[in-house]
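Sharing in case it's useful to others searching the archive later.

Someone asked me privately for the predicted structure of Enoyl-CoA hydratase family protein, so I'm posting the question and my answer publicly. Question first, with the sequence:
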Amino acid sequence: MTLIARTRARAVETLALDAPQRRNALSAALVGELADALTDAGRDTGVRAVVLTHTGTTFSAGADLKDPPDPEALVALLRRIVELPKPVVARVTGHVRAGGLGLLAACDIAVASTAATFAFTEVRIGVAPAVISLPLLSRANPRALSRHYLTGERFDAAEATATGLLTAYAEDVDTALAPILDGLRRAAPDALAETKRLLTARVLEAFDREAADLTALSARLFASPQAREGMTAFLERRDPAWVV
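And my answer, the predicted structure tokens:
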């Protein structure tokens, strides 16, 4: 069963996370298939830009707790989005949690509908937003991230835009995306690639500098007793033992 739906229109390749029954959680299989689809799009001279979107009511619920990806594989996926020689545009009409926010931060442009909601839920299950910090800390407002990282609160598209997680939000996301995609279609392919390289240089510096340490941190936290309790509590739909 395919987990990534691919369509193309006027040189824009759309990759849709297509595991709605799992809330498009980042399983090992989904991460691998998305990485392959991005590689194909990057090599295809007929592709001018990539739209990353989803089926169902959730863009991504974060890591799949039953089949989590290896942290190194998630780092490689995020880096592939950042390094892709084509602009990657996130189209969000549903909820985004935890690791899903890393996908948004890795994209060059991110647009969401007013129905979208966001939350860094890692601390509530005993882990930290470690690997996804590689693109996030380079692009988002540090003061706003402090609150969202530390509390796990849910916030809306207006707040996500102010924080720097989104480029824009609108009631009709496709209407908001139309001029963006038109602009990308009018741009010269080589110029787009070099301009993206300018924009992502500092993000890639963070990957080079911090990826190994953050990957190790993620692996250590996911293997911790608190993470086991937090994940068990989440699956059992109860509060973890530390809630007061």
